[in-house]
Amino acid sequence: MKKYTQLYNTIKDMILSGELAVGEKIPSVRKACRIYNVSMTTVQNAYFDLCADGYIIAQDKSGYFVSDIAKAQSNDNYRAEENNAQYDLTGGTADEESFDFTLWQRYIKSALRQTERLLSYSQSKGEYDLRCAIAQYIKEKRNVITSPDRIIIAAGVQPLLQILCSLLSNKNSVSFPDKSFIQGMGIFKDYGFDVHTRDKDADIIYVSPSHMTRWGDVMPIKRRLELVAYSQEHNSLVIEDDYENEFLYNVKPTPSLFALGKGNIVYMGSFSAMLLPGIRISFMVLTKDLAEKYDEKSYLFAQTASKTEQIALCNYIRDGHIKSQIRKIRRLYSAKTKAFADLLKKELPDAKIEIGENTLQIILLSKFNKDLSVFEEMGLKVFVEKYEGDEIVLVISPAGIPYSEMDIIAKKLKMSIL
């Protein structure tokens, strides 16, 4: 490949990836010669081709600037995806009626008035008053008794797992319930762990007791006690992702693994499902030993969650709104799941349709002999749990579907499947 072609591809990739932003000036011909260690002719030929193909624009006496071609392509892709996935049935969206935006805005405005506090970065573990509020909340809700010093806050579960991986230098393998835990498995792989599924002999056992699989299965108390005993006997660490515990409605409350264990459980929780997906605040409770390791390496970590949102959430919890919010969305989402399941049973009488234990998922098993692209063509974003032979299993989460459009979506599913 000629040198000017290599340079052309390098700059083109930087533009398309967003490394070079729209309107940004790229290096002059002379400067590019020094940066890339090539001749002036090579740079000129590359720049001429980039101009001809619309990636950069030459301005008299000013130089070369990035065009909006990448932005245009990105917008086209986004619009296409948005049009093809008009209805998200994977649980990735929330119902607008599920959250009091006006109330939350008041707490955000109140947080923004704390100007002196906002002039500094957040503590690496997260704001201390929020950690105190979380400690009290999980003590009352899940009997997770801990000091605020063992709580770590972050913008989502992923950064928490990254922190955790950096503390687990004495562990080599991790096991997940199934392959649907894609993001968590990817993080542990990136940190060099051997990643398995359903391997009780792994050094680390990752579980989500209130949502063990995409089907929404809930871990029974007998299994919880067995897991706690086994992990203690084999000196394995258990990561308890208490995802969706707040939404359990049809099953008896079950104690957290953390409450049943004896020092080898890392407890994790998130407020995104309770509030909004766009409010990314999650937390984990470290074991005593891991908390000490964190303190030794605290200078390596930076807080990723918004300080303003942390302050707002702290007061939101203290004023009791989180409890009423949970009651509200539990009623709303459970009712929507039942309503949508009833519609599907009418539209697809030959299909097997069940509601998951946590009342948030619908498991649909039906005869199916089409290409999976039919769902996208119908504007549906679905999670396919299984597709073998002439049968398909869909896991449907209707939380973000407006009541007014349920009938339309049920008919679209029928047309897609039959």
Descriptive report:
The protein has 418 residues and is an alpha/beta fold. The protein has 16 helices and 15 strands. Strands 4-10-9-8-7-5-6 form a seven-stranded mixed sheet, with helices on both faces. The chain has a four-stranded antiparallel sheet with strand order 11-12-15-14, covered by helices on one side. α9 links the parallel β5 (173-176) and β6 (194-197). α1 (3-17) crosses α3 (40-52), α2 (29-36) crosses α3 and α7 (128-142) packs across α13 (307-318). The longest helix is centred in the last third of the chain and has 27 residues, at 321-347. The chain is globular. The N and C termini lie far apart (51 Å). 36% of the residues are buried.
List the main descriptive attributes of the protein structure presented here.
single chain, seven-stranded mixed beta sheet, four-stranded antiparallel beta sheet
Summarize the structure.
By secondary structure, the chain is an alpha/beta fold.
Strand count, sense and barrel status of the largest sheet are: 7 strands, mixed
The shape is globular
Helix content: 40-55%
Give the rounded overall mean pLDDT. 88
Q: Tally of extended strands?
A: 15
Distance between the termini: 51 Å
The strands making up the biggest β-sheet line up spatially as 4-10-9-8-7-5-6
Question: Nearest-angstrom radius of gyration?
Answer: 26 Å
Class from secondary-structure proportions:
alpha/beta
Instruction: Return residue spans where pLDDT drops below 50 for at least 5 consecutive residues.
Output: 75-83
What percent of residues are in strands? 15-25%
